[in-house]
Amino acid sequence: MKQRILSLSVACGLALLAGASAAQGFKASNDKARAGMRVPAAAAATAAAAPAAPRSADFIVAVVNSEPVTNVEVQQQVERLRAQAEASNMPADTLRRQALEMLIGQKIQLQMAAERNLQVDSFAVQQAEESVARQNSMTMTELRARLVREGISETQFRADLKKQLVIQKLREAEVDSKVRVSDLDIDQYLREQKAKAGMANAVTQLNLGHILVTVPENASEAQVKQLQAKAQQAADKIRAGEDFQAAVAEFSDVPDGKGGGPMGLRPADRYPELFVKATQSTAVGSIAGPVRSPAGFHILKVLEKSSGEVPAIVTQSHARHILLRPSAQLSEAQAVERLEDYRRRVLAQQDTFDDLARRYSEDGSAKEGGDLGWASPRKFVPEFEEALNALQPGEISPPIASRFGIHLIQLLERREAKLNQREQRDMVRSIVRENKLEQAFSTWAQEARARAYVEYREPPQ
What local confidence, expressed as pLDDT, does residue 29 receive? Predict the structure, then answer.
Protein backbone atom coordinates (compact mmCIF):
# COMPACT_ATOMS: atom_id res chain seq x y z
CA MET A 1 0.00 0.00 0.00
CA LYS A 2 1.29 3.42 -0.86
CA GLN A 3 2.68 5.21 2.19
CA ARG A 4 1.11 8.59 2.83
CA ILE A 5 1.80 11.34 5.33
CA LEU A 6 -0.88 11.20 7.98
CA SER A 7 -0.94 13.30 11.12
CA LEU A 8 -1.93 12.16 14.52
CA SER A 9 -5.32 13.29 15.75
CA VAL A 10 -6.13 16.90 16.45
CA ALA A 11 -5.39 16.01 20.05
CA CYS A 12 -1.80 15.35 19.19
CA GLY A 13 -0.54 18.08 16.91
CA LEU A 14 2.12 15.82 15.41
CA ALA A 15 2.30 13.91 12.14
CA LEU A 16 3.49 10.49 11.06
CA LEU A 17 4.04 8.59 7.89
CA ALA A 18 1.15 6.16 8.04
CA GLY A 19 2.84 3.12 6.59
CA ALA A 20 6.28 3.66 8.06
CA SER A 21 5.00 4.70 11.46
CA ALA A 22 2.78 1.67 11.82
CA ALA A 23 5.68 -0.53 10.83
CA GLN A 24 8.07 1.06 13.30
CA GLY A 25 5.91 1.09 16.40
CA PHE A 26 4.54 4.61 16.17
CA LYS A 27 0.81 4.09 15.86
CA ALA A 28 -1.53 7.04 15.85
CA SER A 29 -1.27 7.75 19.52
CA ASN A 30 -0.32 10.96 21.20
CA ASP A 31 2.38 9.72 23.55
CA LYS A 32 4.70 12.30 22.14
CA ALA A 33 2.31 15.12 21.57
CA ARG A 34 3.21 17.79 24.06
CA ALA A 35 6.12 18.63 26.30
CA GLY A 36 5.28 19.13 29.94
CA MET A 37 1.90 17.40 30.19
CA ARG A 38 0.69 14.02 29.02
CA VAL A 39 -2.27 13.60 26.69
CA PRO A 40 -4.40 10.52 26.03
CA ALA A 41 -4.44 8.23 23.06
CA ALA A 42 -5.90 9.94 20.04
CA ALA A 43 -9.54 9.35 19.29
CA ALA A 44 -10.45 12.58 17.57
CA ALA A 45 -10.46 13.08 13.84
CA THR A 46 -7.19 12.75 11.95
CA ALA A 47 -6.28 15.55 9.59
CA ALA A 48 -3.10 16.07 7.61
CA ALA A 49 -1.48 16.96 4.35
CA ALA A 50 -2.10 14.49 1.56
CA PRO A 51 -1.51 14.01 -2.14
CA ALA A 52 -3.51 16.40 -4.23
CA ALA A 53 -6.91 14.95 -5.06
CA PRO A 54 -8.01 14.75 -8.68
CA ARG A 55 -9.44 18.02 -9.87
CA SER A 56 -13.22 18.13 -9.69
CA ALA A 57 -15.95 20.73 -9.74
CA ASP A 58 -15.96 22.87 -6.63
CA PHE A 59 -19.07 23.90 -4.77
CA ILE A 60 -20.19 24.42 -1.19
CA VAL A 61 -21.28 21.22 0.56
CA ALA A 62 -21.80 22.66 4.07
CA VAL A 63 -21.69 25.92 6.00
CA VAL A 64 -20.19 25.99 9.50
CA ASN A 65 -21.05 29.18 11.40
CA SER A 66 -21.03 31.07 8.06
CA GLU A 67 -17.74 29.46 6.93
CA PRO A 68 -18.10 27.22 3.86
CA VAL A 69 -16.84 23.68 3.44
CA THR A 70 -16.19 23.00 -0.23
CA ASN A 71 -16.32 19.86 -2.34
CA VAL A 72 -12.59 20.14 -3.06
CA GLU A 73 -11.81 20.25 0.66
CA VAL A 74 -13.85 17.11 1.21
CA GLN A 75 -12.13 15.34 -1.70
CA GLN A 76 -8.73 16.25 -0.26
CA GLN A 77 -9.79 14.91 3.14
CA VAL A 78 -11.01 11.70 1.48
CA GLU A 79 -7.54 11.23 0.01
CA ARG A 80 -6.00 11.75 3.43
CA LEU A 81 -8.13 8.96 4.85
CA ARG A 82 -8.08 6.61 1.88
CA ALA A 83 -5.35 4.31 3.19
CA GLN A 84 -7.24 3.77 6.45
CA ALA A 85 -10.50 3.26 4.57
CA GLU A 86 -8.96 0.67 2.28
CA ALA A 87 -7.60 -1.23 5.27
CA SER A 88 -11.09 -1.42 6.84
CA ASN A 89 -13.02 -1.88 3.56
CA MET A 90 -15.01 1.29 4.21
CA PRO A 91 -17.64 2.08 1.53
CA ALA A 92 -16.95 5.22 -0.52
CA ASP A 93 -20.08 7.06 0.64
CA THR A 94 -19.26 6.32 4.29
CA LEU A 95 -15.72 7.59 3.78
CA ARG A 96 -16.99 10.83 2.24
CA ARG A 97 -19.44 11.41 5.10
CA GLN A 98 -16.69 10.77 7.62
CA ALA A 99 -14.36 13.18 5.80
CA LEU A 100 -17.03 15.89 5.80
CA GLU A 101 -17.79 15.48 9.50
CA MET A 102 -14.10 15.64 10.34
CA LEU A 103 -13.73 18.89 8.41
CA ILE A 104 -16.78 20.33 10.16
CA GLY A 105 -15.36 19.45 13.56
CA GLN A 106 -11.99 20.91 12.68
CA LYS A 107 -13.50 24.17 11.43
CA ILE A 108 -15.58 24.54 14.59
CA GLN A 109 -12.54 24.09 16.79
CA LEU A 110 -10.36 26.43 14.73
CA GLN A 111 -13.08 29.07 14.93
CA MET A 112 -13.19 28.69 18.71
CA ALA A 113 -9.40 29.00 18.85
CA ALA A 114 -9.52 32.18 16.74
CA GLU A 115 -12.10 33.69 19.10
CA ARG A 116 -9.66 33.07 21.96
CA ASN A 117 -6.75 34.44 19.91
CA LEU A 118 -4.80 31.19 20.30
CA GLN A 119 -1.76 31.20 18.07
CA VAL A 120 1.21 29.00 17.26
CA ASP A 121 4.48 30.44 16.02
CA SER A 122 6.89 29.07 13.45
CA PHE A 123 9.24 27.51 16.03
CA ALA A 124 6.50 25.21 17.36
CA VAL A 125 5.60 24.17 13.81
CA GLN A 126 9.28 23.52 13.05
CA GLN A 127 9.53 21.32 16.14
CA ALA A 128 6.44 19.37 15.12
CA GLU A 129 7.92 18.86 11.66
CA GLU A 130 11.20 17.64 13.16
CA SER A 131 9.26 15.28 15.42
CA VAL A 132 7.55 13.79 12.37
CA ALA A 133 10.97 13.06 10.90
CA ARG A 134 12.33 11.56 14.14
CA GLN A 135 9.33 9.33 14.72
CA ASN A 136 9.66 7.99 11.19
CA SER A 137 13.43 7.50 11.45
CA MET A 138 14.11 10.17 8.83
CA THR A 139 16.23 13.24 8.50
CA MET A 140 14.47 16.46 7.58
CA THR A 141 15.92 16.14 4.08
CA GLU A 142 14.46 12.65 3.74
CA LEU A 143 11.08 13.81 5.02
CA ARG A 144 10.91 16.66 2.53
CA ALA A 145 11.91 14.32 -0.27
CA ARG A 146 9.10 11.98 0.74
CA LEU A 147 6.62 14.86 0.72
CA VAL A 148 7.68 15.75 -2.80
CA ARG A 149 7.25 12.14 -3.95
CA GLU A 150 3.78 12.03 -2.43
CA GLY A 151 2.79 15.28 -4.14
CA ILE A 152 2.48 17.22 -0.87
CA SER A 153 3.73 20.78 -0.72
CA GLU A 154 5.84 21.66 2.31
CA THR A 155 3.73 24.79 2.77
CA GLN A 156 0.51 22.77 3.02
CA PHE A 157 2.12 20.20 5.30
CA ARG A 158 3.27 22.91 7.72
CA ALA A 159 -0.12 24.63 7.51
CA ASP A 160 -1.88 21.41 8.54
CA LEU A 161 0.58 20.90 11.40
CA LYS A 162 -0.11 24.44 12.55
CA LYS A 163 -3.88 23.84 12.55
CA GLN A 164 -3.44 20.79 14.73
CA LEU A 165 -1.14 22.61 17.14
CA VAL A 166 -3.70 25.42 17.46
CA ILE A 167 -6.44 22.89 18.20
CA GLN A 168 -4.13 21.28 20.75
CA LYS A 169 -3.79 24.62 22.52
CA LEU A 170 -7.57 24.94 22.53
CA ARG A 171 -7.88 21.49 24.04
CA GLU A 172 -5.39 22.32 26.77
CA ALA A 173 -7.31 25.47 27.64
CA GLU A 174 -10.82 24.02 27.46
CA VAL A 175 -10.45 20.41 28.59
CA ASP A 176 -7.15 19.29 30.08
CA SER A 177 -7.03 21.60 33.08
CA LYS A 178 -10.46 20.39 34.24
CA VAL A 179 -9.67 16.68 34.47
CA ARG A 180 -8.92 15.23 37.90
CA VAL A 181 -7.90 11.70 38.93
CA SER A 182 -8.93 10.34 42.35
CA ASP A 183 -7.58 7.40 44.32
CA LEU A 184 -10.85 5.60 43.56
CA ASP A 185 -10.16 6.02 39.83
CA ILE A 186 -6.72 4.43 40.29
CA ASP A 187 -8.12 1.51 42.32
CA GLN A 188 -10.81 0.86 39.70
CA TYR A 189 -8.28 0.90 36.86
CA LEU A 190 -6.03 -1.59 38.65
CA ARG A 191 -8.97 -3.92 39.29
CA GLU A 192 -10.05 -3.74 35.64
CA GLN A 193 -6.55 -4.43 34.33
CA LYS A 194 -6.07 -7.42 36.60
CA ALA A 195 -9.46 -8.82 35.54
CA LYS A 196 -8.64 -8.41 31.84
CA ALA A 197 -5.24 -10.01 32.22
CA GLY A 198 -6.71 -12.86 34.26
CA MET A 199 -9.44 -13.63 31.74
CA ALA A 200 -7.26 -13.50 28.67
CA ASN A 201 -3.90 -14.39 30.23
CA ALA A 202 -2.63 -11.80 27.77
CA VAL A 203 0.20 -9.32 27.74
CA THR A 204 -1.28 -5.82 28.04
CA GLN A 205 1.97 -3.82 28.04
CA LEU A 206 5.25 -4.23 26.19
CA ASN A 207 8.64 -2.58 26.04
CA LEU A 208 10.47 -3.59 22.89
CA GLY A 209 13.97 -2.85 21.72
CA HIS A 210 14.01 -2.14 18.00
CA ILE A 211 16.43 -2.31 15.10
CA LEU A 212 15.21 -1.27 11.66
CA VAL A 213 16.97 -2.01 8.39
CA THR A 214 15.04 0.10 5.91
CA VAL A 215 14.13 -1.07 2.42
CA PRO A 216 13.85 1.82 -0.07
CA GLU A 217 10.74 2.15 -2.18
CA ASN A 218 11.10 0.38 -5.52
CA ALA A 219 14.11 -1.59 -4.26
CA SER A 220 15.25 -4.35 -6.58
CA GLU A 221 15.06 -8.00 -5.56
CA ALA A 222 18.85 -8.03 -5.17
CA GLN A 223 18.74 -4.99 -2.86
CA VAL A 224 16.01 -6.58 -0.74
CA LYS A 225 18.04 -9.76 -0.33
CA GLN A 226 21.14 -7.74 0.60
CA LEU A 227 19.23 -5.77 3.25
CA GLN A 228 17.59 -8.91 4.59
CA ALA A 229 21.05 -10.43 4.99
CA LYS A 230 22.15 -7.32 6.90
CA ALA A 231 19.17 -7.66 9.25
CA GLN A 232 19.88 -11.37 9.72
CA GLN A 233 23.49 -10.56 10.55
CA ALA A 234 22.30 -8.15 13.27
CA ALA A 235 19.97 -10.79 14.71
CA ASP A 236 22.68 -13.44 14.66
CA LYS A 237 25.16 -11.18 16.46
CA ILE A 238 22.67 -10.40 19.21
CA ARG A 239 21.75 -14.06 19.64
CA ALA A 240 25.47 -14.83 19.89
CA GLY A 241 25.78 -12.42 22.81
CA GLU A 242 26.52 -8.98 21.34
CA ASP A 243 25.08 -6.04 23.33
CA PHE A 244 21.76 -4.95 21.86
CA GLN A 245 22.54 -1.22 22.02
CA ALA A 246 25.82 -1.83 20.22
CA ALA A 247 23.86 -3.61 17.49
CA VAL A 248 21.43 -0.67 17.33
CA ALA A 249 24.33 1.72 16.70
CA GLU A 250 25.85 -0.60 14.08
CA PHE A 251 22.80 -1.72 12.14
CA SER A 252 19.69 0.42 12.78
CA ASP A 253 18.82 2.91 10.05
CA VAL A 254 17.86 5.94 12.11
CA PRO A 255 18.94 9.61 11.87
CA ASP A 256 22.29 10.36 13.54
CA GLY A 257 22.41 6.86 15.02
CA LYS A 258 19.60 7.72 17.46
CA GLY A 259 15.98 6.76 17.75
CA GLY A 260 16.48 3.00 17.76
CA GLY A 261 16.70 0.72 20.74
CA PRO A 262 14.06 0.70 23.53
CA MET A 263 10.68 2.10 22.52
CA GLY A 264 9.31 2.34 26.06
CA LEU A 265 6.68 0.47 28.04
CA ARG A 266 3.29 1.07 26.47
CA PRO A 267 -0.01 -0.78 25.98
CA ALA A 268 0.37 -3.60 23.47
CA ASP A 269 -2.29 -2.05 21.23
CA ARG A 270 -0.02 0.97 20.74
CA TYR A 271 2.50 -1.22 18.95
CA PRO A 272 1.92 -2.41 15.38
CA GLU A 273 0.09 -5.71 15.24
CA LEU A 274 3.12 -7.09 13.39
CA PHE A 275 5.34 -6.40 16.42
CA VAL A 276 2.86 -7.86 18.92
CA LYS A 277 2.42 -11.08 16.93
CA ALA A 278 6.17 -11.44 16.34
CA THR A 279 6.94 -11.22 20.07
CA GLN A 280 3.87 -13.01 21.42
CA SER A 281 5.76 -16.16 22.37
CA THR A 282 9.16 -14.49 22.86
CA ALA A 283 10.51 -14.54 26.40
CA VAL A 284 11.73 -11.39 28.14
CA GLY A 285 15.37 -10.84 27.18
CA SER A 286 15.06 -12.74 23.88
CA ILE A 287 14.71 -11.38 20.36
CA ALA A 288 12.36 -11.94 17.43
CA GLY A 289 13.03 -11.38 13.76
CA PRO A 290 13.99 -10.25 11.31
CA VAL A 291 10.35 -9.59 10.39
CA ARG A 292 9.34 -7.73 7.24
CA SER A 293 7.07 -4.70 6.95
CA PRO A 294 6.61 -2.06 4.22
CA ALA A 295 9.34 -0.03 5.97
CA GLY A 296 11.95 -2.78 5.98
CA PHE A 297 13.26 -5.52 8.25
CA HIS A 298 12.84 -5.34 12.04
CA ILE A 299 14.68 -7.06 14.88
CA LEU A 300 12.79 -6.86 18.17
CA LYS A 301 14.06 -7.51 21.68
CA VAL A 302 11.50 -8.07 24.44
CA LEU A 303 12.67 -5.87 27.30
CA GLU A 304 9.52 -6.00 29.45
CA LYS A 305 6.13 -7.70 29.43
CA SER A 306 3.29 -6.83 31.75
CA SER A 307 -0.21 -8.26 32.23
CA GLY A 308 -2.14 -5.37 33.68
CA GLU A 309 0.37 -4.69 36.43
CA VAL A 310 2.44 -1.55 36.73
CA PRO A 311 6.10 -2.49 36.19
CA ALA A 312 8.04 -2.89 39.43
CA ILE A 313 11.33 -1.98 37.73
CA VAL A 314 11.68 0.89 35.28
CA THR A 315 14.40 2.95 33.64
CA GLN A 316 14.63 6.30 35.41
CA SER A 317 16.30 9.46 34.12
CA HIS A 318 18.08 12.14 36.14
CA ALA A 319 17.93 15.44 34.27
CA ARG A 320 18.05 19.18 34.72
CA HIS A 321 16.69 22.00 32.60
CA ILE A 322 16.56 25.72 32.01
CA LEU A 323 13.09 27.13 31.31
CA LEU A 324 12.34 30.48 29.66
CA ARG A 325 8.73 31.63 29.39
CA PRO A 326 7.90 33.75 26.31
CA SER A 327 6.12 37.00 27.13
CA ALA A 328 5.43 40.45 25.73
CA GLN A 329 9.05 41.29 26.58
CA LEU A 330 10.54 38.00 25.33
CA SER A 331 9.33 36.44 22.11
CA GLU A 332 9.57 32.70 21.56
CA ALA A 333 12.24 33.27 18.93
CA GLN A 334 14.28 35.35 21.38
CA ALA A 335 13.91 32.66 24.06
CA VAL A 336 15.18 30.05 21.62
CA GLU A 337 18.12 32.26 20.69
CA ARG A 338 19.07 32.78 24.34
CA LEU A 339 18.90 29.07 25.11
CA GLU A 340 20.98 28.24 22.06
CA ASP A 341 23.57 30.70 23.39
CA TYR A 342 23.46 29.07 26.85
CA ARG A 343 23.99 25.67 25.24
CA ARG A 344 26.96 26.98 23.24
CA ARG A 345 28.51 28.49 26.38
CA VAL A 346 28.17 25.23 28.33
CA LEU A 347 29.64 23.16 25.50
CA ALA A 348 32.52 25.64 25.20
CA GLN A 349 33.01 25.41 28.99
CA GLN A 350 32.51 29.16 29.32
CA ASP A 351 29.68 28.58 31.83
CA THR A 352 28.19 25.66 33.72
CA PHE A 353 24.65 24.41 33.20
CA ASP A 354 24.08 24.63 36.95
CA ASP A 355 25.07 28.30 37.12
CA LEU A 356 23.04 29.32 34.07
CA ALA A 357 19.95 27.55 35.44
CA ARG A 358 20.29 29.32 38.79
CA ARG A 359 20.65 32.71 37.08
CA TYR A 360 18.12 32.49 34.27
CA SER A 361 15.67 29.59 34.60
CA GLU A 362 12.07 30.61 35.29
CA ASP A 363 11.19 27.29 36.88
CA GLY A 364 10.98 26.33 40.55
CA SER A 365 13.98 24.07 40.02
CA ALA A 366 16.24 27.07 39.33
CA LYS A 367 17.47 27.25 42.92
CA GLU A 368 18.65 23.63 42.52
CA GLY A 369 20.52 24.41 39.33
CA GLY A 370 17.59 23.16 37.26
CA ASP A 371 17.84 19.68 38.81
CA LEU A 372 14.62 17.68 38.29
CA GLY A 373 15.72 14.65 40.32
CA TRP A 374 15.14 11.06 39.31
CA ALA A 375 12.08 10.64 37.12
CA SER A 376 10.21 7.52 36.06
CA PRO A 377 8.51 7.17 32.65
CA ARG A 378 5.41 9.38 32.20
CA LYS A 379 6.69 11.96 34.69
CA PHE A 380 7.15 14.60 32.00
CA VAL A 381 4.97 15.67 29.13
CA PRO A 382 5.61 13.98 25.78
CA GLU A 383 7.75 16.53 23.92
CA PHE A 384 9.95 16.95 26.97
CA GLU A 385 10.15 13.19 27.52
CA GLU A 386 10.80 12.54 23.84
CA ALA A 387 13.74 14.93 23.86
CA LEU A 388 15.03 13.49 27.13
CA ASN A 389 14.84 9.91 25.88
CA ALA A 390 16.90 10.83 22.81
CA LEU A 391 19.83 12.05 24.94
CA GLN A 392 22.84 10.14 26.15
CA PRO A 393 24.20 10.93 29.66
CA GLY A 394 25.97 14.29 29.57
CA GLU A 395 24.27 15.48 26.37
CA ILE A 396 22.30 18.73 26.13
CA SER A 397 19.23 19.03 23.91
CA PRO A 398 18.54 21.89 21.54
CA PRO A 399 15.76 24.23 22.75
CA ILE A 400 12.46 22.34 23.14
CA ALA A 401 9.02 23.97 23.23
CA SER A 402 6.23 22.91 25.59
CA ARG A 403 3.06 24.49 26.90
CA PHE A 404 5.18 25.83 29.77
CA GLY A 405 7.78 27.60 27.64
CA ILE A 406 11.11 26.78 26.02
CA HIS A 407 13.43 24.27 27.69
CA LEU A 408 17.09 23.38 27.49
CA ILE A 409 17.51 19.84 28.86
CA GLN A 410 20.61 17.99 30.05
CA LEU A 411 20.52 14.28 30.85
CA LEU A 412 22.82 13.54 33.76
CA GLU A 413 22.42 9.77 34.17
CA ARG A 414 20.05 6.80 33.88
CA ARG A 415 19.40 3.83 36.13
CA GLU A 416 17.16 0.81 36.60
CA ALA A 417 15.04 1.36 39.70
CA LYS A 418 12.47 -0.63 41.64
CA LEU A 419 9.31 1.39 42.22
CA ASN A 420 7.68 1.53 45.61
CA GLN A 421 3.90 1.37 45.89
CA ARG A 422 3.45 5.13 45.82
CA GLU A 423 5.57 5.48 42.68
CA GLN A 424 3.63 2.68 40.99
CA ARG A 425 0.36 4.43 41.77
CA ASP A 426 1.79 7.67 40.36
CA MET A 427 2.43 5.88 37.08
CA VAL A 428 -1.11 4.53 37.08
CA ARG A 429 -2.41 8.03 37.78
CA SER A 430 -0.80 9.21 34.52
CA ILE A 431 -2.43 6.36 32.58
CA VAL A 432 -5.85 7.00 34.08
CA ARG A 433 -5.52 10.71 33.39
CA GLU A 434 -4.83 9.99 29.74
CA ASN A 435 -7.98 7.87 29.51
CA LYS A 436 -10.10 10.49 31.25
CA LEU A 437 -8.68 13.25 29.06
CA GLU A 438 -9.67 11.33 25.96
CA GLN A 439 -13.20 10.84 27.21
CA ALA A 440 -13.47 14.49 28.27
CA PHE A 441 -12.21 15.73 24.91
CA SER A 442 -14.67 13.53 23.03
CA THR A 443 -17.56 14.88 25.11
CA TRP A 444 -16.37 18.45 24.72
CA ALA A 445 -16.01 18.10 20.94
CA GLN A 446 -19.54 16.69 20.66
CA GLU A 447 -20.93 19.57 22.72
CA ALA A 448 -19.06 22.12 20.57
CA ARG A 449 -20.50 20.46 17.46
CA ALA A 450 -24.03 20.58 18.92
CA ARG A 451 -23.75 24.32 19.64
CA ALA A 452 -22.48 25.21 16.18
CA TYR A 453 -24.67 26.18 13.23
CA VAL A 454 -24.15 23.63 10.46
CA GLU A 455 -26.08 23.70 7.20
CA TYR A 456 -25.63 20.93 4.62
CA ARG A 457 -25.93 21.86 0.94
CA GLU A 458 -27.02 19.65 -1.92
CA PRO A 459 -24.61 19.43 -4.91
CA PRO A 460 -25.66 21.53 -7.90
CA GLN A 461 -27.81 19.70 -10.46
Answer: 34
